[in-house]
Model the fold of this input.
Amino acid sequence: MPDLPYFDLLMADRPNRGEFGQLWEDQVHWGYWENPEVADGTLADYIAAMERMNCVLFEAGKVADGQTLLDVGCGFGGTIRQIDARHSDMNLTGLNIDPRQLAIAEAESRPAVGNEISWVEADACALPFEDNSFDRVLAVECIFHFPSRERFLAEAARVLKPGGYLAVSDFVPVMMFFGRTPIWMAIRTRVAKSYGTLGKVPLRSYRAMGSRAGLRLEANRNIRKHTLPTYPFLLKFFRAQDSADTRKTMIVGTRWMTWLSKLGLLQYRVYTFHKPA
Done:
């Protein structure tokens, strides 16, 4: 199982209903603001922005009623629950390598009438499903934790039905070669102190990786500017925590992410892949 300091803190804080546990109670990802200038810096605003980020992925993945859908890296199940509340006649599967997260997801999820929800413990790079099993696959801000982005894309392509779609969100260096320089590797080490295991930097572009897997890249959207209010909110939130361990763990990596994103060196991209029929 990958080393994820921020999830370890979340797991420790959830039983006490502490502030940190409430921050990422349902969703565990960045927020999306169509107009970043209206962000007000409150917890409620950030939680709403995380739900909007899910909607960006739903649109990218062309999520609709009557689908079989796999959410890889499902966390505490918030994305699955949001789909369940919005759509009907759905067969939804959440997958995660961490049994602690899955136990919470299962305990807190009740499918709407006509929908089905299941939870699977497995490695995203070795999906335990037959070929052509799903209409849609989502990977919301988690692929950087996987051992290999390219292996995951190959596995997602395998389990997608012909004509199916995959939507992925990821932090991507502005230039792929920069992601393989010594300075970037040093920065990754500092980010990992907060956000944990980061997979290998891909040697190929997403278009090339998708093509090798048999997927066609249909859309590639950089939404970095729409995520920027995340950073001042998180830094202020972490600095206000009573726990010195939380402050020490979370502020270092978040500062580096803030700096890279504000300078435009780190993009936040949403990719849509199509498996030809």
The longest strand covers residues 160-173.
